[in-house]
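Record 1 of the preview.
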Amino acid sequence: MIFGFLDTGIDYTNSCFQNSVGKSRILEIWDQSIQTGRTPDGIDYGSIYGREIINQALESDIPFSIVPSRDEIGHGTQLAAIAAGSLDKETGWIGAAPLADIAVVKLKPAKGYLKQYFGVKADAVAYQENDIMLGLRYLHELALRERKPLVVCIGLGTNMGGHEGTSPLASYINAIGSRVGRCIVVAGGNEANQGHHFYGMLRDGQEYEDVEFRVAEGEYGLTMELWGSTPDVLSVSLISPTGEMIPRPSARSGNQRFDFIFERTIIYIDFQPVEAQSGDQLIVIRMFFPMPGIWRLRVYGTNVLRRIYNIWMPVTGFIAEGTRFLSSKPDITLTGPSNAEIPITVGAYHVQNKSLYISSSRGFTRRGRIKPDLIAPGVDVKTIGPGNRSVSMTGTSMAASVTAGAAALILEWGIVRGNWPTMSSLEIKQLLIRGADRSNNELYPNRSWGYGTLNLYGAFEALERF
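->
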């Protein structure tokens, strides 16, 4: 069994990633940010460090001189410890699947010009979709060479895209996750209460609707995506806090630039009448040096039938705190690629009081497909960070890691032990759904809890009902 992680890396010196005799349980690390070692087959960047050289580093007084890969942020280490950490005999702490092999892709930071193009803060932690896709390919091919089943945990998310699971990354996750011996678990995101989603509806006889949003002080840039519903045709204009208004461009006008006369603000509006993956209309609005204060985005409809549209701002961390829609909606806030169909999508709840984590992103997808699938413990989860430090973490990525550990145990039972040799993400997801705990106070499935809370024992009990 192999546990794969696409994240910020891993602190391979942590004892929770070693076996009982001090040898590393890490099969390989592909560090995309280091360009000094062997690269993966067919990929010309990054460096691979195998178990042999990792063990050499562990025996050295200066391990990072041999294997220089580090997890400076700590997120990847924390997820790996929850899902696959070894037993700590002193404290009794243990991960969900403590005997599994571990494979890690440390994603390289997104290129500066891409962050600049989308107005993302320079110090924001951001990754490129193509690097994530190549990381998934690498993990899949590693599992093929090792002839072992693979569980991949993805604790990353974006608000860019149609929130329907049609992006190239979502499609690739669907393709890999549907294969025998593969299971992919994705965190749903922490966007429910951040004010980054607006749900709009043009009513009969209404020429336009004004969408108010606040721009915080010191905001460098802001990108918003407005997604229409076929066959409606939408167009927009913007009104600044001082009342200056850009003209309403035609929906067929392509990419246009607007410079405000009395302010530094520069706005680009890109109309895509038929977006390539979804077929729906997409309007991308990029603002640079936006004036702080209350803005109005005026949304016009032409020949509208469905009348519904959605707007998303970037995820938390990509824009300044306080930049948000004044009238936001917590639904349809699952981040991509968690809205893909095949993987197990996980939200977070508080085990102690059985309450939903307030920031746990909610479903469904933009077109109403049921997501999230499950909710798992994600508040004050105990784990191990870099330097063997014990920490408590909160968020849907923690819940995804817990669920990935449960999925690994099911996959081991099914494939490694020969009880279900054709098992993949779909079968594991269905077992977890069947075994989930459900409250008498909720109707299931729903936007917040999906089909219920994770119960691994219940999943195995569900097998007896077949």
